[in-house]
Amino acid sequence: MTNAPDPQQMTYEEARDELVAIVRQLESGQAPLEATLELWERGEALAARCRAVLEGAQERLQQIVRPELDEQG
User: CA 38 to CA 44: how far, in whole Å?
Assistant: First the structure.
């Protein structure tokens, strides 16, 4: 995993797709303990990236919708 891209530089889709692949690997139960821990840590970082991107998108939408609601009210 040392050559894996930094999650903070990944798009939402890239991070999500890798996270799904990691979950599948973890669910298989085939990885040795050390590899499982590395996968888990990578998955946590990817999940944090996905969360941050979604929160940013939500904030952007609220900034768009809020002025429209103010104009109506």
Answer: 10
